[in-house]
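Dear colleagues,

As part of the handover before I leave the project, I'm documenting each prediction I ran so the next person doesn't have to rerun anything. This entry is a single chain, and its sequence is reproduced below.
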Amino acid sequence: MVGFGPWGRVVLGCLLCLGLSWGSPAIAAISSGDLSRQSVTEVTVSLGNSANEFKFEPSSLEFVPGKRYLLRLTNPSQLKHYFTAKDFADAIWSQKVEAGKVEIKGAVHELELKPGATAEWVFVPMKSGKYSLRCSIPGHTEAGMIGEIVIAGK
């Protein structure tokens, strides 16, 4: 595979396992260079708010396959909240999650944000679909802390 670095080959292998074709935007992004060097589109999501309401703001997110994003998560409430979206996490390539002085690499399915916490998740969507988002703390989903994430195919 001339032109692909070692990580490009790993990501390409993962994409092929997901059943993506050479014509998909994700494959096009890889063939045009290193995914980790693309410019990022920043999206901010608040888990709750200062009034301690149980909601994601915004509750609807849309991403494009093959494009690199920085998802900035904040928790301005006085309660801890989870950003739980396992199926979404399985449909993306996570470059890293950074919180405080810790950087996590690899698959991430759920993030817990304590009051006042922030986290940054850098990823590239790979598989189109609609995915549910929720806070998995007992009672939070039922109180309305839900959302939807769409990876829109081209």
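The radius of gyration is 16 Å. The helical segments are 6-17, 25-31, 86-90.

All the best with the project,
I.
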